[in-house]
Amino acid sequence: MFSKIILGLVLLFAINTVAQEKMDKLVLSGPMASVSHPLIHMIETGALKDVAQKIEFRMWNNPDELRALTLKGGADFIAIPTNVAANLYNKGVDIKLVNVSVWGILNILTRDKTLKTLADFKGKEIAMPFRADMPDIVFEEIIKKQGMDLKKDFKLKYLGSPIDAMQMLIMRRVDHALLAEPATSMALRKTQSYPLKLVAPDLYRGPDLQKEWGKTFNVASRIPEAGVSVIGDAGNNKYLIKRFNEEYAKSLAWYKANPVKAGKMVAKYISMLDADAVADSINYVTLDMVDAKDSRKDLEFFLGILKSNNPKSIGNKIPDSGFYY
Prior knowledge:
The protein is of the alpha/beta class. The chain has 2 domains: about 1-105 and about 225-325, Periplasmic binding protein-like II (D-Maltodextrin-Binding Protein, domain 2); about 105-215, 3-Layer(aba) Sandwich (D-Maltodextrin-Binding Protein, domain 2), CATH 3.40.190.10. The protein contains 14 helices and 11 strands. The strands form 3 sheets. A 6-stranded mixed β-sheet has the order 2-1-3-10-4-11, sandwiched between helices. The protein has a 3-stranded antiparallel β-sheet with strand order 8-5-9. Strands 6-7 form a two-stranded parallel sheet. Strand 1, helix 2 and strand 2 (about 50-60) form a beta-alpha-beta unit. Helix 2 (about 35-45) crosses helix 11 (about 240-255). It is globular.
């Protein structure tokens, strides 16, 4: 009996020692969009200093850079569109979804305030970032369900990023753009400042794609668009993932409650973003951290819609339970 007690104490000590052993470096990665901003706060506050000697943020600017980071082991945790995470998992990449935190970030910005629904944009040119990725896919699925034809009813001008689309809109090279926050708020801020006010004086928030989604598919007006995934060996460290989710939740709550401070913090790390615009954007993004397993029902509905029309967008199948940490 005594020997069993001693063995138990030894095992408990060993588990705690492993759990608290620090990594040399922890890399957090994400785009300039809102899903990454809590990651920046985690670094700014030293939130994970108990698990890593050094913590670094690496920004990805386009889907190709995102995929390179996951395939080449350039990050431990990565903020990522959910369909891309599913696609990579289905292709055999060692990736697991940790949480979903962005449930609404997409809307159309337009020069014509009379355009209120997606159907109102039939026949018009719309600047679209990231061909065949999240904004484009959500737009396509909604209009298909509404009985419209992507090629016949719309003129899409594909661009490399939301910032590219925003700049085209500001410079009057397009009249409408599908944007993700904070690019939408940046465009609205920029067009109110001299001399851009003379070039592009009037922009309006058009259709909210999440509301269109809810109305079209008869579900809640929220889409599990993005979250954070763990990559490679980091996925085997339960203590690390537990600590990550705890701190991400705290940082997300701080971000939502402190828009002005959050804007200044994000602009310090991502120079192309404007502090005031980031602060504005927080009021227009649906942010709610849900653990991966608890988001599975919503995510499988979303991925099922994508699979029915474009199986390649998720890797040809709904991910199995191994996808959800």
